[in-house]
Amino acid sequence: MKRLAEFVKERRKEAKLTQEEFADRTGVALTVIRKVEQGKSNLNMDKVNLILRMFGHELAPVNSKELE
Length: 68
Prior knowledge:
mainly alpha
């Protein structure tokens, strides 16, 4: 499974967007984009979902037993 930081950065680059352009399109602050791409752990889930929706994805809580 790809880490969130790698996924977001790769997809942003595939879309040929700078971090600034991506922040404008997703409606989140540039600092949030940078934190996500740097792999910071203290992220707001709502902000992360705004970013992921750009690619048709969303984070949601998952029971670890369901993954087995």
